[in-house]
Write a structure and sequence with these properties.
Layout lengths: L1 H16 L16 H5 L21 H8 L2 H10 L2 H5 L22 H4 L2 H8 L17 H5 L1 H16 L1
The chain binds iron/sulfur cluster (2 copies).
């Protein structure tokens, strides 16, 4: 129960941060360390999402997309509070996600609204670990998920020092 509450708190913070687009929302706080655990000694920005996260194959939106299931999409739509957050009505054709770096796939409404992704693309980075402003960046994602931010900063150190 306590664990569930913690997870819910984390989820709520993610919603506020505007990261309803990715599986980051569905993990527990330990997920914030995953970018470190998953990376080899020198992290490769090309293999990471723009913020440093790696999408989980367990993401409900991704699974619904791959299975092309209107039922699963509806469930994910409600769980991610897409009406409340993005004011989009449920339409199975608009509720999908292939991650935030798939060049040959359409970009979902939710991913498209991510300010970190937009900023990194604008600066020509594959990932924020390439950015010298990471430690002082004021994007809501970092402010709302300090544990995740710490993990990404550590990853940046490995990237720069390796
Ligand atoms: S950059 Fe944005 S859209 Fe991509 S994984 Fe991170 S929070 Fe999600
Ligand atoms: S300023 Fe740097 S760290 Fe912040 S979102 Fe943009 S690319 Fe990422």
């Amino acid at each position: 129960m306590k664990k569930d509450l913690k997870r819910r708190d984390f989820v709520n913070k993610c919603f506020k941060a505007g990261v309803t687009c990715c599986a980051l929302v569905y993990g527990n706080p330990a997920l914030a360390q995953d970018p470190i655990r998953q990376q080899p000694q020198k992290p490769d920005p090309k293999n990471l999402n723009y913020c440093g996260y790696k999408c989980s194959a367990e993401c409900p939106v991704y699974k619904a997309t791959i299975e092309n299931s209107p039922e699963l999409k509806k469930k994910a739509y409600e769980e991610f509070k897409m009406k409340e957050k993005y004011n989009i009505d449920f339409d199975p054709d608009r509720i999908f996600c292939y991650g935030c770096k798939q060049k040959d796939k359409p970009v979902s409404v939710t991913v498209n609204s991510c300010s970190v992704r937009r900023c990194a693309i604008g600066k020509g980075y594959d990932c924020c670990i390439e950015c010298n402003k990471l430690t002082v960046c004021d994007k809501e994602l970092w402010k709302s998920l300090p544990q995740f931010r710490e993990a990404v900063i550590k990853m940046q150190k490995s990237y720069k020092n390796a």
